[in-house]
Amino acid sequence: MAEKVTVPEISRMKQRGEKITALTAYDYSFARILDEAGVDILLVGDSLGSVIQGQQNTLPVTLDEMIYHTKAVVRGRKRALVVADMPFLSFQVSVEEAKRNAGRFLQEAGAEAVKVEGGVQLLETIEAIVRMGIPVMGHVGLTPQSVHRFGGYKVQGKEKQEREAILQDALAVEEAGAFSVVLEGIPMDLAQEITRRLSIPTIGIGAGVQCDGQVLVVHDMLGLFDMYTPKFVKRYADLRGVMTGAVKNFITEVREGKFPDEEHSFH
Predict the structure, then answer these.
(1) Any idea what DSSP says for residue 59?
(2) Residue 184 catalytic?
(3) Number of folded domains in the chain?
(4) Which label site among 28, 89, 100, 231 has the fewest CB atoms less than 10 Å from its CB?
(5) What does the pLDDT profile of the chain (267 residues) look like in tens digits?
């Protein structure tokens, strides 16, 4: 087995110019597969609201639900760094509450870092969590928990004022002590500038190839979720098609009395 991925190793990967790979995971089975395939970071994303729960957005996902899924992912991985998304209302209400909830992810679920959405306005919160010894991954640009403020899932940073605000958010996240930052849904030239300006790694999703790493929602890239497909998603497989075919074969064999056969029966 390859050496365990740690927070300092993620930082060193940027220094070496080595691209960082990250995928979302929500359960034991997927975590095992992704981990054994060699992905660097498993992000237990609040995107589970959409791809697991069938919600319209990430806002209904609770802290207890995130802890439950993080526990399952931790059991399935040996090498990857596990980062848990802090869901809506788990870090915005107060710094004290944010610290307590971040601590639960490490103490109860076994996560090794947490991710929070926001920039300048979260500087104090990130600093406080980091002071506790908890690694923090930032998230700026299109932040899904602010979907209503944006008026939908729209690319951010096209206007000059927006660009400057996102750059300041990224700089604030670094200043607060985060070990990395997700850049979502922003023009690739802005992501390139941020990546050049920051000493911490940038992980892109819809932010172009110049980021230090890339993350995708695993159900998107495997073709399991098709309610909507963002422009930045590349489908590396059609597992939905494979699964549908397998289920249809099962139904046919059961109805025709072909399953179970001798090989799959006891005597």
Answers:
(1) T
(2) yes
(3) 2
(4) 231
(5) 589 999 999 999 999 999 999 999 999 999 999 999 999 999 999 999 999 999 999 999 999 999 999 999 999 999 999 999 999 999 999 999 999 999 999 999 999 999 999 999 999 999 999 999 999 999 999 999 999 898 888 999 999 999 999 999 999 999 999 999 999 999 999 999 999 999 999 999 999 999 999 999 999 999 999 887 889 999 999 999 999 999 999 999 999 999 999 999 999
**Nearest alpha carbon to residue 42 among 70, 15, 64:** 70
Taking the CB of residue 222, how many other CB atoms lie within 10 A of it?
Answer: 19
Q: What count of Cα atoms within 13 Å lies in the side-chain half-sphere of residue 197?
A: 18
Q: What is the DSSP letter of 118?
A: B
Q: Do 248 and 227 lie in a common domain?
A: no
92 occurs within a structural domain: yes
Is pTM beyond 0.85? Reply is: yes
Range of the domain at 250: 239-267
Residue 186: partners with Cβ closer than 8 Å, 6 or more residues away: 141, 142, 155, 156, 157, 166, 206, 207
